[in-house]
Specification:
CATH class: Alpha Beta
CATH superfamily: Zn peptidases
Shape: globular
Number of strands: 9
Distance between the termini: 80 Å
Bound molecules: zinc ion
Number of domains: 1
Structural class: alpha/beta
CATH topology: Aminopeptidase
Order of helices and strands: HHHEEEEHEHEEHEHEHH
Number of helices: 9
């Protein structure tokens, strides 16, 4: 009897002890997780994440793993929205032979608690420019492992505390050299999510020596001025507006310079959050070690705050007029 009782009791006791003395690992903080995602996505083994390469596929596999872990539902099978495009083998010669490149956006969905007519799209491109002829890796920590890590942080925040409206998350491929992933997505919206009320784009949110993060798009969509002002008041960094007025110098108008561009061209209100060009922009020195990490952590919190404020008034934002409706094809 005793022996049997011991046999039965020991495993049970072990379970109880395990439950008491070894609780689940404490959840990693949002900031620590974002830093980890940034470090992994910009590591040397991702080889600069150029569209169509193994390094790009490795980054995508990591994103699929993280989206699954966070609990984001795939919109397509395994999140993938594939498309192809043609590229000249010699970019200096348009008549050179062409190659076909396969690109893959990842698209996930978070259900809203009280969804309205529109969805909010939140996106960031995960591709970058790869490795040059001399073997230098362009790690693209700021451009745009940072925005991609921000996308994951936003996904986790919305899973924990759900949005009112349905949210579609997109990790865009093939942004570098033509915003191809975003163009493809806008032209091929997932069934049931055709009506996009707003698009939030993150591209370069990890490097600023002056703690300045720009919210671009308020000039076109004045209803967003108050949203950005309110977020700016509570932000630990400087959230500024600008770089969206028509100007003779195209570098000073970022309206069409990243993945929010094709959404704007389709008449969709947007905010693009990013930093000014800097010494590491499109250089091999755009590495995790060179980022301003406290700024990045502040930028991630700010992006989440902006997304929540937009979610709370998505219907109003979707219905508000843009300043130049004639320039935008609806
Ligand atoms: Zn970029």
């Amino acid at each position: 009897m005793n022996t049997i009782r011991h046999f039965l009791a020991l495993p049970a006791l072990a379970l109880v002890l395990a439950a008491c003395t070894a609780p689940e690992e404490p959840a990693i903080s949002r900031e620590a997780q974002a830093l980890e995602d940034l470090r992994i996505l910009s590591a040397d083994d991702m080889q600069g994440r150029l569209v169509g390469t193994e390094g790009n596929a490795r980054a995508r596999a990591y994103l699929v793993e993280r989206l699954t872990e966070i609990g984001v539902e795939p919109v397509f099978e395994n999140y993938a929205q594939s498309f192809t495009f043609e590229r000249s083998l010699d970019f200096r010669d348009p008549d050179a032979p062409r190659e076909t490149i396969e690109a893959i956006n990842l698209v996930g969905r978070i259900a809203g608690t009280n969804p309205g007519e529109h969805v909010m799209v939140i996106g960031a491109h995960y591709d970058h420019v790869g490795v040059d002829e001399d073997g230098n890796i362009f790690n693209g920590a700021d451009d745009n492992a940072s925005g991609t890590a921000g996308l994951l942080a936003l996904a986790a925040a919305f899973m924990e505390n759900p949005p009112q409206n349905d949210v579609i998350l997109v990790a865009f491929d093939a942004e570098e050299g033509g915003l191809r992933g975003a163009r493809h997505f806008v032209a091929n919206r997932p069934e049931g999510y055709e009506s996009i009320g707003f698009m939030l784009n993150m591209d370069m949110i990890a490097y600023s020596e002056t703690d300045d993060l720009y919210a671009v798009g308020t000039w076109h969509y004045p209803i967003l001025v108050d949203v950005v002002a309110a977020a700016s008041e509570v932000s630990s960094i400087n959230l500024r507006t600008g770089y969206d007025e028509p100007t003779d110098n195209p570098r000073n108008d970022w309206t069409m310079l990243s993945d929010h561009g094709p959404f704007h061209a389709a008449g969709i209100a947007f905010l693009y959050l990013g930093v000014e060009d800097h010494q590491h922009y499109h250089q091999p020195s755009d590495t995790y070690e060179n980022m301003t990490l406290p700024f990045f952590a502040g930028a991630v919190e700010t992006v989440i705050d902006v997304a929540r404020r937009v979610d709370a008034m998505l219907g109003e934002i979707a219905a508000a007029p843009s300043r130049q409706p004639e320039a935008v094809e609806k």
